Amino acid sequence: MKKLYPPVPFLLALGLMWLLSHYFPHLLLISISVSKWLGLSIMALGVLAIVLGLGQMIMHKAEYHPFQKPTKLLSNGIFAISRNPIYLGFLTILVGYVAYTGYPLLLIFPFLFFCLFHYWYIPNEEIMMRQEFKAAFTAYEQRTRRWI
After folding, report:
1. How much is the pTM?
2. pLDDT tens track for 78-124
3. 3-class SS at 6?
4. For residue 5, what are the contacts with CB-CB under 8 A and spacing of at least 6?
5. Tens digits of per-residue pLDDT, 66-78?
6. How many angstroms separate the CA atoms of 104 and 122, rounded?
């Protein structure tokens, strides 16, 4: 599982959420009427976070593959708001999809996604960042939150 790239669990969770909400809605037990526009708006914020984060990484030629050695420490732009804007975007899209469908039991998928990234992906990346950028990363960690 060490080389499981972050979009894979995101797309897996989103796909399972879609399957459950479309083909097995009776298994979700509870349906809350939530505005589809609210869900779409939340998902749009997630897409925006991903686009801004990835765009900034590409613009500064920073390594964006999580298992590669980091090449640049980005701490401005969207990275001044969150140390992990792309992961935050993935999570926001999943939560937005829950709002869109109105099935609160689907919240298990964003929760599992959060746990996987908070306790496995991000700590491994932070170890590499500390090794590469030392005091600069420690200072960044102290002024910028992991999520938001």
Report:
1. 0.93
2. 999 999 999 999 999 999 999 999 888 999 999 999 999 999 999 99
3. coil
4. 65, 66, 67
5. 999 999 999 999 9
6. 26
Helix axes 85-101, 7-23, angle to 10 degrees: 0
The C-alpha atoms of residue 113 and residue 102 are separated, in whole angstroms, by 19
Cα angle 40-44-47, degrees, rounded to a multiple of 5: 140
* Contact (CB, 8 A) for 67 and 8: no
Q: Which two tokens stand for residue 135?
A: 């005091």
Query: What span, in angstroms and rounded, lies between the C-alpha atoms of 61 and 36?
Result: 37
Sign of torsion over alpha carbons 119, 123, 125, 126:
positive
Residue 68 per-residue DSSP state: S
- DSSP letter at 70 equals P
Residue 128: partners with Cβ closer than 8 Å, 6 or more residues away:
69, 70
Judging by beta carbons within 10 Å of its beta carbon (0-12, 13-18, 19+), is residue 79 exposed, middle or buried? Answer: buried
